């Protein structure tokens, strides 16, 4: 199966051909994949070099002229390093862009901590008005990229990953989707965590919601799920643990509830290793999730067994 990032350049190249408003801004990373389309649209495919603050500033400048810029590099260089420009050049000037990241939490362990950004969504959460898409499969990434470009002049973040679920699902760029229904708690699986969550909860009587758009947070879907499954809620996110716990708490503010946020821990893992080893070390593999979810949700009630 190809990766989400494998889809990125072909999809965006087609968008450049289809829509004269679309522009692409790069900072060396990914430049080779756009060489052909750059010859067709030299004024709308820009490489600023290894200058991440300029990357965001250029995208904002293009937006001010009426274009719809797609800005791409690794998450640590797209959100963390130029955060002031994201806040001011886009947010303060009230212009939109589509930021598309790669290699976020720990997708490229050999790159070391400079190339890891598990706090990217939490950092964007400090700003107003961002839509955040976290696809869990290359097909979903393609759909959500198109949604993002078509979203008027909004500020949109699309988080691509080498981690992916085995099967893509129909996503609409807005709602959480019910994958499994139960009566003993709700588990919200974000993006590429879905397969591990489904394996972890196979014997538990839980509702599983699938989220590929996490901002705005689909409070209505969570509230609806808790009406039959109870108000023990577990969030499983492929980035910083607890990023969405406040949003879940706000959704259930008028009812007694409990929320457990699972995700990437704050402790830095100083041995590079492989992606799968980082997943396990942060407790996001199916075995670890089974233990952590089972201890929390509904007393670990098993399907078909009386409590």
TrEMBL record:
CDD domains: TPP_PYR_DXS_TK_like
Listed Pfam families: Transket_pyr
Protein name (Swiss-Prot/TrEMBL): Transketolase
Keyword match DNA damage: no
Entry-linked InterPro entries: PDH/Transketolase, THDP-binding, Transketo_C/PFOR_II, Transketolase-like_Pyr-bd
Enzyme Commission code: 2.2.1.1
Single Gene Ontology MF annotation: transketolase activity
Protein's organism: Streptomyces pseudovenezuelae
Start and end residues of each Transketolase-like pyrimidine-binding domain: 2-167
Keywords: Transferase
SUPFAM superfamilies xref list: Thiamin diphosphate-binding fold (THDP-binding), TK C-terminal domain-like
Keyword flag Transferase: yes
């Amino acid at each position: 199966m190809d990766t989400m990032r494998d889809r990125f350049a072909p999809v965006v190249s087609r968008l450049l051909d289809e829509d004269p408003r679309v522009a692409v801004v790069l900072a060396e990373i990914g430049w080779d994949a756009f060489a052909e389309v750059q010859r067709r649209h030299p004024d709308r495919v820009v490489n600023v070099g290894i200058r991440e603050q300029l990357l965001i500033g250029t995208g904002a400048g293009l937006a001010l002229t009426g274009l719809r810029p797609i800005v791409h590099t690794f998450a640590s260089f797209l959100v963390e390093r130029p955060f002031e420009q994201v806040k001011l050049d886009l947010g303060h000037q009230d212009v939109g862009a589509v930021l598309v990241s790669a290699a976020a939490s720990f997708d490229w362990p050999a790159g070391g901590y400079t190339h890891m950004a598990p706090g990217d969504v939490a950092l964007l959460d400090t700003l107003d008005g961002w839509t955040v898409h976290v696809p869990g499969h290359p097909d979903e990434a393609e759909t959500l990229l198109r949604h993002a470009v078509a979203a008027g002049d909004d500020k949109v973040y699309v988080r691509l990953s080498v981690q992916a679920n085995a099967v893509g699902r129909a996503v609409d760029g807005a709602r959480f989707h019910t994958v499994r229904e139960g009566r003993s708690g709700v588990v919200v699986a974000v993006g590429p965590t879905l397969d591990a969550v489904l394996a972890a909860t196979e014997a538990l009587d839980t509702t599983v919601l699938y989220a590929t758009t996490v901002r705005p947070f689909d409070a209505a879907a969570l509230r609806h799920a808790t009406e039959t499954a109870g108000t023990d809620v577990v969030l499983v996110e492929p980035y910083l643990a607890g990023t969405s716990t406040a949003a879940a708490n706000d959704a259930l503010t008028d009812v007694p509830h409990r929320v457990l946020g699972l995700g990437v821990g704050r402790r830095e893992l100083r041995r590079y290793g492989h992606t799968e080893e980082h997943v396990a070390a942060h407790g996001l593999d199916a075995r670890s999730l089974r233990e952590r979810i089972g201890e929390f949700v509904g007393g670990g009630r098993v399907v078909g067994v009386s409590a």
